[in-house]
Amino acid sequence: MRNTSEAIITGPASWPDVERLFGVRGEPSRCWCRWFALAGQDWKNTPPKARKEQLKAKFDDGPEPGVLAFRGGEAVGWCAVEPRQCYPRIERSEVLKAAGTGGLEGAEVWSVSCFVVAPGHRRSGVAGALLEAAVGHAFAHGADIVEGYPVDPSLRPKAGPADLYQGTVKLFGAAGFSTVSTAVPGRAVMRLRR
Asked: In this protein, which residues make up the domain named N-acetyltransferase (predicted)?
């Protein structure tokens, strides 16, 4: 049994910790947070090992592409956050198109695209701590607006962990984000301005 009463400490991600957290089984070890970075055939034609190498390369190219949460010195959660242009699949999504771009002209928009929380640490405050750290990370690196695309479980009651990797409306609302669109049923676009 894991001790979920220990304090959660967050900070910029390091590659070795991300690699350990994602492991060798499960969706994180297949996706490597590249779903939104690779659209269409690029996704299908890129095997998991290459996706892993792409994420690893992001750690050498500039600010870390996400933040980590730790408990007792162990990485227990990850949140991907980068400038929205790093995610072509988001930029082309129906969810974002429905939200429109009004008021974003000239703004540096960063996207919170994905959460990974280790089994045994879910529903214990890790996602909230990660979102707070992701917002701080984005603003520290020039974001004017941080954007998320969470699920509304009240409209999608059968949504399970595999559907909630983008977070929930409640999580983003608690962090101060405002809803700008709910045009796609069960999905929202939420934004937080500096």
From this structure: 22-194
Q: Are 81 and 110 in contact (CB under 8 A)?
A: yes
- Per DSSP, the three-state class of 3 is coil
Sorted by sequence, the CB contacts under 8 Å of residue 157 that are 6+ apart come out as none
In order along the chain (194 residues), what is the average pLDDT of each group of 10 residues?
75 93 92 94 96 95 92 95 95 87 85 93 92 97 96 87 88 97 91 94
Q: How far apart are CA 16 and CA 93, in angstroms?
A: 31
Kindly report the CATH number assigned to the domain that includes residue 189: 3.40.630.30
Q: Residue 179's domain spans which residues?
A: 8-193
Residue pair 148/169 in contact (Cβ under 8 Å)? The answer is no
